Here is the input.
Amino acid sequence: MNGQIDLLTLYNQDKEAFRQIISGSEMWDIALARRNQLLKTHLSEVSKLARQFGSKFGLEEFLSVAGYLHDYGKASPEWLEYLIKKLMSEDAPIVPHSIHGAKYAFAKTKSFPFIGEILGNIILSHHGKLYDNISPEGETLLNDNLSTESDFEVQKEIPVNVNLIYNEFTDILNVDKNADIRFNLSMLIKLVYSCLVDADRLNTSGVGNGVVYSPILPEWDNLILKLEEKLTQLQAKEQSEMSVLRKIVSDNCKVAGLREIGIYKLEIITGGGKTFASLRFALEHARHHKLDRIIYVIPYLSIISQTAKEIRTALDLDENMVLEHHSSFLPDDEQYYKLHTDRWDTTIIITTQVQFLESLFSAKGSDLRKFHNMANSVLIFDEAQSLPIKCIHLFNSAMNFINKICKSTILLCTATQPPFESALRKLAFSDYPSLTEYMEPPKRYEIRNELKASGYTYPELAEFVLKKHQKSTLVILNTKKAVKLLYKELYRRKVPVFHLSNNMCSAHLENEIEKIVKCLDDEKPVLCISSQLIEAGVDISFECVIRDLAGLDSIFQAAGRCNRHGKSKIGNVFVINIRDEDLGRLPDIKKGAMITRRLFNEDKIYDIDLYYKHYFYTQQKEMDYNIDGGSIYDLLSSNKQGQGAYLKRKDKQGKKPPEIWSAIRSAADEFYVIDKGRIDVIVHYGESTELLEKYNTVKNIEGKRKILKNLSGYSISLYRYQLDLLKKNGAIDNQNYKDLTVLKNNFYDKTIGLNF
Here is the structure.
């Protein structure tokens, strides 16, 4: 008896004989992992694949054992009967299986308990989320489960070389002697968990559908050749002071590609050819060190598709070779897209800052599955200054881990490089970290202080804008409310003006930006009022820029839209302040604005290094990602909160605490890059009305899901309180779209977006 068909037939014909067979000595040979796959085959194949993944960072033996034990509990009569019942479409209570392999691993590694805790955690969690070792409340659910006696009858002894595994962990944790070893241990748990989850799911997906795992082998030589051809064409077309600077920077980046694996920065002025310069470095570096992939991390959805298009065009690549991983991307092949966004195993990946960080600091298998594919890679962070201040220490420590342990190179790109190396938890830049020497850029603009003691009212600001308005003027304000109010003030004066803010859906924004670009290209007058979304990534140039007071980095970013290509002699960047501006929900902007005002008073407005020195000094306490009772950094390190709670619990008195203290699951539950609790609301714009009608008529789930994908470009993100206010005022259509959150047509303006 050795296969599914025999067991199904026997179960159907003689249930008593079936139970005798599965309870006998042949159990190990007949046990099934799932339909059409023997358990021993699955365990062996997952073990080999996990070992292969672990070889990138020296944990082959550990992951080989983890792979073999992850489904070990399926070698039981209870599991096999449950599986057969499910295959026969019978009701059956779920039979847990992961706990048995986890307990077995924990018992086999008592000489080094921390190894057992790690093995037990990743095995027990491989279908869900990693456990806390000690929760913030002092609970030790993981160890409590692992240390209880198992009622599982061992079918086959699995050798566990604990000493070899201990040496593997000792070697890897000693790679970076300057690191916080407990934080690195938390990241290491995530890393091995990633390997196990990916190996298991790859093997599972290959059963029954002919899919066999085969890594994508990058053709770096060919890609480099294509990029060099593209750059030669571009340089032949353009001959200006800026184009000369771009070529020098790009050439320096190419040479820098031969440097060692490390952490580097590319400080380059806006319009300096950052995308192609960083790509040139990454391709040369990947070829030189035989790396697997290039991962671009971009802060804003508004520029991610643009970047992807530029790279695809330059390298002559199709969609499958340049993977976009973000919420608004619509793939042609959804199955292919799902697999590769889960795994990140294509040649070039372009994703958002939110996607990257929330995957890295998650505890879910579905999120962390891709983590091990960040190893042996080049990671490029565009607009690095946009990283939220609360995430700085987590980011720095994680990047040090990915560099030292995962043997990947990190590149930070920005026109205004924050001093990550001066934080309390430093980013460990390589020696001589800059890819290119600083070059004095052509002077394209002057920053002018137009601040008023009392600030500008909106009528006063409208007058100021009209007074300074030249052929093309861009006004950037801190809040969506301010953008809307100034727009209305100018509109009342019958002044033609464009409006850009995140109160508009992405399709609407794209259309408006296209109109602005065309007007500028045709040399028609343009006046645009925008929120900060236009400060990065949009290749657009105005003769005059007016910027609401903010951090100096934001003002420099805004200045990057002024005389961007150096076609005018000197542009003007006027800094103003709005009276009684409400920045309560924007504390980082508020603090940055205070420091910028100080620099204005000291006549040091161009000193970005001094700005960051003040900014980082005043914000050090915020960089651990503070939460009630502590910080996320601490939860992933010493977990003082959990330790203290553990010592106070009566049920823990006299018991030895776990060897590992981290609270990975609790940290994940608290971590978010942007404000938690935002809700996407679909608006009536462009094709959305037609799509919504189709959604109501389509009955099958797959059809509805595809329509929802297409609707993603027609939604705006709101806080919960904003949505509640809209509901209170009858702005949400509950009648026509019962399972969707849809804004009524009259609450969305075709110019300014959300009109409420």
Q: What stands out?
A: The chain has a mean pLDDT of 90. The chain has four domains: 4-205, 246-422, 456-617, 679-754. The first helix runs from residue 4 to 13. The longest strand covers residues 293-298.
